[in-house]
Specification:
Structural class: alpha/beta
Strand order of the largest sheet: 3-2-1-4-5
Order of helices and strands: EEEHHHHEHEEHEHEEEEHEHEEHE
Radius of gyration: 20 Å
Largest sheet: 5 strands, mixed
Shape: globular
Helix content: 25-40%
Number of helices: 10
Oligomer: single chain
Number of strands: 15
Distance between the termini: 32 Å
């Protein structure tokens, strides 16, 4: 049940962006077959785009207002009545942001890169497009709406570096071993996460409920896990990630690095952080050479966070591989 090494025939396209939204980007496309064979390299440019900065800020402000207002008591009728209008406004701003982003990617500086992607990817290929940039804002943009990707239904966009595959010991168990950490639950329903995990077939799940750091450290050091799952509150400061273990302890991923490194050496293959604003978590986990991770880019209500989990577990635990490095773009987090 461990995640399979990617097949030698799987294509990977890596887009590396050097620069910023304020200054523009130099872009390098590299398409590989499997992990080693380079099929093509192309270069391109993208201009500075202050409109993307401005529209991202407007959309984010509107979106966060909708989330906050959605939690307001129904007794405040006047405020609640305005929520549908705010949602409409948020949707409009989201469409404007997506249109500006797609127009930007369609500029003349990426002509050769777009042609290379079309020429070397087949619509039936199982492929990955890895987006790599030091400008974290680029990872928050709606890549799934890029019209070029409509022709490749089996291609997924992920963020980070190509995975660093390391051979690890195999587990004698036929079940997937999951360490599920249910952190600080203020204003969120982590019990639903517990219910979903408890009902999984082909899985052995151990729950740590609002643990302290010592308990989490021991669990990562002393036992072997296939998957680490966290539900609760998290936050990113630049490229650093923080998680709220309980009502009083907030830890950075760096503070858990020794225990996580030990867990990876014992077979940890995947970490899932079903929590807010997790790109900083992904950057730090990538440095530890964790093969795969799923983190959440933006806050969403609990119900959406739970619905995200159901098809994932259904697919992965029915024997389908999940070779996903770094952060999946469609993932979202709870508010």
């Amino acid at each position: 049940m461990r995640p399979a090494r990617p097949p030698a025939s799987q294509k990977r396209a890596l887009l590396r962006f050097s620069g910023s939204l304020e200054t523009g980007f130099q872009v390098i496309l590299e398409i590989r077959l499997g992990l080693d064979r380079i099929l093509i390299e192309k270069t391109g440019t993208l201009p500075a785009c202050p409109a993307l900065i401005r529209e991202t800020s407007r959309w984010r402000s509107s979106y966060e207002q909708c989330l906050r207002q959605g939690r307001i008591s129904g007794l405040k009728i006047g405020i609640q009545a305005s929520l549908p209008h705010r949602i409409q406004d948020c949707n409009r701003l989201g469409k404007d942001l997506s249109a500006t982003f797609c127009d930007w990617l369609h500029g003349p500086g990426l002509t050769e890169i777009r042609a290379s992607l079309r020429g070397l990817l087949d619509p039936q290929d199982e492929a990955q497009l890895l987006v790599r940039s030091t400008d974290i804002r680029l990872h928050r943009l709606p890549w799934h709406n890029w019209p070029l990707l409509e022709f490749y239904p089996r291609l997924e966009v992920v963020f980070g570096s190509p995975p660093k595959w390391i051979e690890r010991p195999t587990s004698p168990s036929q079940k997937v071993r999951i360490l599920a950490v249910l952190g600080d639950r203020e204003n969120i329903d982590v019990e639903k996460d517990r219910d979903i995990l408890s009902a999984l077939p082909n899985a052995e799940v151990e729950f740590l409920v609002e643990p302290d750091r010592a308990l989490l450290d021991r669990s990562l050091w002393e036992k072997s896990w296939d998957i680490l799952f966290f539900a609760g509150h998290s936050h990113s400061i630049g490229q650093q990630g923080q998680i709220s273990l309980n009502k009083t302890e907030v830890l950075t991923i760096g503070e858990l690095s020794n225990a996580l490194t030990q867990a990876i050496s014992r077979g940890l293959q995947l970490a899932i952080f079903n929590s807010c604003d997790g790109l900083g978590i992904a950057y730090e986990l990538e440095d530890l050479h964790l093969p795969q991770m799923i983190v959440m880019r933006e806050p969403v209500p609990d119900r959406i966070a739970h619905e995200f989990l159901k098809p994932f577990w259904r697919t992965s635990l029915l024997g389908c591989p999940f070779p996903w490095p770094c952060a999946k773009p469609e993932s979202a987090s709870r508010a």
